[in-house]
Amino acid sequence: NNWAKACMLFPLCWPFYPMHCLCAYNNINDRVRAQHLCVTQDGIRYVVDKHKVECRFDCQDKGKVTKTVPFDKPRIATL
């Protein structure tokens, strides 16, 4: 996590580290529950639904992301 590394390097960020720790469990839980993988007629579809990130404010929501890997174009894909 880049935020945690930056916090260790810059002492001015230290007061915000407890907030990061308090939100970390919920952020990981939301990220895991937002992920979906399915097989369709066109290919394999990977979806990450809208979920909370960072300090969990409404303005920091991560939007929905959809990726489709078609069957007719085989390639190495990182999901």
Could you characterize what this model shows?
The chain is an alpha+beta fold and 79 residues long. It has 2 helices and 3 strands. Strands 1-2-3 form a 3-stranded antiparallel β-sheet. The longest helix is centred in the N-terminal third of the chain and has 18 residues, at 17-34. The mean pLDDT is 83.
Key terms:
33% helix, 22% strand, alpha+beta, 79 residues, single chain, 2 helices
Biggest beta sheet summary: 3 strands, antiparallel
Helix content: 25-40%
- Through-space gap between termini: 18 Å
State the secondary-structure class.
alpha+beta
Give the number of DSSP strands.
3
Low-confidence segments:
none
Number of helices: 2
Spatial order of strands in the largest sheet: 1-2-3
Helix and strand pattern: HHEEE
Question: pLDDT average, as an integer?
Answer: 83
Strand content: 15-25%
Break the fold down into its secondary structure elements and pairings:
Elements (H helix, E strand, L loop, with lengths): L1 H8 L7 H18 E5 L3 E6 L16 E6 L9
Task: Write a short abstract of this structure.
The protein has 79 residues and is an alpha+beta fold. The protein has two helices and three strands; from the N terminus they run ααβββ.
